[in-house]
Amino acid sequence: MKKTAAVLLAVLMLAMCMPFAFAADGCTCGKAPIIHIYGLGNAVYQGDTVVFPPNKDTILATVRQALPITPALLVGKLKDAQQELFLDAAKTVFDPIAFDANGDPVNGAAARFTYPTAENHKNGELIGFDYDWRVDPFVSAAQLRDFIGYVKEMTGHDSVYLVGESMGTVVLNTYLAEYGFDGVEGVVWYNGAYNGVASCSDSFANKNKFESDALARFLKQVGMNAGNQFLFDLFSALEDSGLIDEVMDSVVSAADDLNESGRFSRFLNECLGTMPGFWALVSPENFDGAVEFAFPTEELRDTHVALIEKITRYHDQVAMHIDELMQTAADVTGKVGVVAGYGSVMPPVTADNLQQSDGVIGTAAESNGATCAPFGGSFAEDYTQGVACGHDHISADREIDASTCYFPENTWFIKYGGHGFSSGGYSRELLNRIFFTDGFNVRSDPAFPQFMVLDEATNTVSPLTAENGADRTMQAGFTAKLFGLLFRVFSRFLKLCKTVTGWFVR
Ligand SMILES: [Zn+2]
Ligand SMILES: [Zn+2]
């Protein structure tokens, strides 16, 4: 009896180990695992403490530092000492995750990521890969290579599918440029940052533009997206009362002061610009100008020579070869896809603030070439498709022409989808179709056409029509009038402060 029990136990234990043992010897499910390379966003730790995103202590310290200069900021005149204070306050946020002049981490702060210990890939589930978004993409790409090796061993497959999301497309492209396409079955670029992210790119190249109507548009959309009448009224009143103009004038004037004194450039070469990860978000067109702006002197270029080498390597070997990498991916794997979002305004810091975006990245950039009507508008009636390929590539709302994309037949758009995998199960379903159906394109499945729209209320995605894709509108309500009154008074007061300050500052 005892012996039978022991044998049974042994058989049971063996059976429990079986799936994994079999898998490691070669899985026969026919679906290579999909590796999902995440976007920028994982927390940075110092020991067990999260130091970025900034914790309460850091935020309080920053506010305390900046508090004495708030009046000066509001009137938009910063003296030298005040500018130093402002710079110090801004640096406080990034100090805990700072990099050195060579572009290497200091302080021992690091992003945490772990390998999965259990996996399920047989139904097209995604296996997530994370990395430290601050580091040189080549470092992350080497980690991805190791991770791919681990996933292959764990699943018993000798190949994988790769999908990069947002900054993950930077790591994805670096991996492909450095290690090639061996064992890669298919590639998808999802809300990709690989052509640059305007808010970062323009900041680094000193091309930022702050406009009050862009800010108002952005804020009102925040209210509209949240379906929040109160927020919408608040922001409408900010605009209608002229207060937003008054504040933006000050912001622009203070920004000009910081710029002219060289302190903005210093903020880059001492702080933000020491992280190679951010440099990978600078568009290829802006790269040279950004290097010049961040390292304006021979001396700075000498002290940062190793850093400049790192960021130039990414620019030269990856960013300048996007089309080639995409073409090779299509030729070698036959299974490629690009997913882009639209229907959201750009963050209000770029000159091109009327371009279509997913709220973070411009639609033209992440789709690698779509022609887009300006935000809030549509193509003129006599507009004809950019490339006459014999198919209709213009969206039903007449805002996007996909015929000019690098992959016109393999680029999908989700209106109001926002940035990232926010569209529920749809993203995974689409990836599964691209990867597991031979020759899948925008005409293969009527449920997955080129243009889709997300209904946030139900978190469902459906094919875009002229009706469900109509631009959102909201009317300012009663509270907007109340706020308007208050803001007009404050706006007058601010104007008076500026005049008085003008008498003393020259
Ligand atoms: Zn399998
Ligand atoms: Zn076509």
Name a few traits of the molecule:
eight-stranded mixed beta sheet, 13 strands, 506 residues, three-stranded antiparallel beta sheet, 46% helix, binds zinc ion
What share of residues is helical? 40-55%
Instruction: Please report the distance between the alpha carbons of the first and last residues.
Output: 99 Å
How many helices? The count is 19
What would you call the structural class? Answer: alpha/beta
Bound molecules: zinc ion
Mass-distribution shape: globular
| Main β-sheet, spatial strand arrangement | 5-1-6-7-8-11-12-13
How would a textbook summarize the main sheet?
A: 8 strands, mixed
Radius of gyration: 26 Å
Instruction: Work out the number of β strands.
Output: 13
Strand content: 5-15%
Q: Roughly what is the average pLDDT, rounded to an integer?
A: 91
Low-confidence segments, ≥5 residues, pLDDT <50?
A: 14-23
